[in-house]
Amino acid sequence: WAGHYTVTLSSLAFVYSGVNNWVEKAINIVKEVLDIVEPLYQESPDVWSEVYVSNLIIITISYRNNNQISQAIDIGEDLLKVAEVLYEKDSEAWVVNYTEALTNLSLSYSKTASIEKAISLSQEALTIKEPLYQKNPSVWADSYIIGLTNMALYYMDNDQLDQSIDLGKKTLLVVEPLY
């Protein structure tokens, strides 16, 4: 029943994480889930990877939404290590989680003085997303557009206005046909 229990808690935490006043509740719930899941993941990674990774994503987002940026970065770095190993084993199965880990960590770094790190992580995610978008735009358009937009904003924050404008134009070329 550990699976049902942790998935139920994770679902509740995900709902809480989207409501400003309840983000702290989401964090506490996910901490409880991770206390249960982490040892199970260590013991049987093939069985528990999905639950473990999804909860690391939820807590990273929740910490960032709660302006606990250093915690979001610390857990985001752990998440990236796990997601990268899984992605290297089976890139097709784990590409969404891996690119989400890169994106979430870049968003967290963008809230600090480490904008270059945000740019680097975002670029890595875009390098993966672009060919996926070109191959299957109906599935990847949203993620690709968000990635381009984030990257343009990071360049703007880093006073790289030419790159920001170029990415803004590129994003527009992707969005216009969908409008």
**Helix proportion of residues, in percent?**
over 70%
Q: Gap between N and C termini, in Å?
A: 46 Å
Please tell me what the overall shape is.
Answer: globular
- Tell me the β content: under 5%
Query: What is the rounded Rg?
Result: 17 Å
* Total number of beta strands: 0
Helix-strand string? HHHHHHHH
The count of helical stretches stands at: 8
- Ranges with pLDDT <50 over ≥5 residues? none
Largest β sheet strand count, sense and barrel closure: none
Summed over residues and divided by their number, the pLDDT gives a mean of 93
User: What class do helices, strands and sheet pairing give?
Assistant: mainly alpha
Outline the secondary-structure elements.
Layout: H1 2-17, H2 23-43, H3 45-65, H4 69-89, H5 91-109, H6 115-135, H7 137-157, H8 161-175
Description:
The chain is mostly helical and 179 residues long. It is built from eight helices and no strands. It has helices spanning 2-17, 23-43, 45-65, 69-89, 91-109, 115-135, 137-157, 161-175. The protein is globular, with a radius of gyration of 17 Å. The model has no long low-confidence stretch (mean pLDDT 93).
Tags for this model:
0% strand; mainly alpha; 179 residues
Question: Would you summarize the structure shown here?
Answer:
The chain has helices at 2-17, 23-43, 45-65, 69-89, 91-109, 115-135, 137-157, 161-175. It is mainly alpha-helical and 179 residues long.
